[in-house]
Amino acid sequence: MHINKTWKLEKIIPKKDNTRFCTRFALIEDGNLVATNGKAMVVHPIELTAEDHDGFVTIEAIKASRKNGGLIGANSALTVAGTVYLRPDIERDQYPSWKNVVPDYDAEGETKVECISFGIDAALLRDVADALGATGNASKSQKCISLQVPVDRETGEVTRPIVVTCADSEGSKGLIMPLTKL
Fold it and tell me: N or C: which end of the chain has fewer CB within 10 A?
């Protein structure tokens, strides 16, 4: 299997999760590499070889593959540059049903539900949340923000600033311009 060296799946996969142990691992399924923590998900299409099989992948193997051009052999075990990593012995049905939450796309690549698409600088979004004083919810690990996205009724495009607010901001607002090119 070949994965992109820039993918940092460990940012999504929880280090400890007592309720869903299986989310500590990525999942290869149907030509995709999936990582989730139950609140966020990343789905990457991947290149598989004839020897690769669906199943779980450890973060250790993914990290090691970055030093090896993103190559991981994924059959009964995971192999990266001669080092073998055991695959977790977990039943597939314990992993979240990721296909149920990914939007359906038609043959032209359009979603089957009405959506808007726009680009936003993720680092700026985090900076604005910090500047507004978003301190988090009950778990204190999540910075809760709200995005108000103005959409041009005629074109359906996002051309005006996106308004960022949070419960902790006491009426303060942040504004981020959408990216003009993706």
Answer: C
